[in-house]
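Please describe our next protein:
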Amino acid sequence: MMTLDPMSDETTYSIDVHAESVYLPDQSDPDSERYAFAYTITISNTGTIAAKLLSRHWVITDAEGQIQEVNGDGVVGQQPHLQPGEQFQYTSGTLIETPVGSMRGEYFMRADDGNEFEASIPAFSLAVPHILH
């Protein structure tokens, strides 16, 4: 673990992203190949400088390899500005045509010093309960 000297000029850009998904049976229709999922994202600024989330890029893949890409400004209509140590959490949703899939992506950030950087969104599963072992 690296510690920073508070008197140093070293700046770190670090955003951690954690995701959890849940199947939504009441919004799904398996007979029509429609599987709905909600996902809750927690974005944490673990760096040493405040940063604003400008936009997002999602890659959503179903079990047949069909890919949907989603790009847009902010998240859920917001562009959160996170101070070091702050978190922002939101819930959104997606539809896929198979009972199993995955999501991954990036958030595009701008630090208060003007530098832009990407925050990776690690892949997470979308799965109907009890379908995976």
In short: Confidence is low (pLDDT under 50) at residues 1-8.
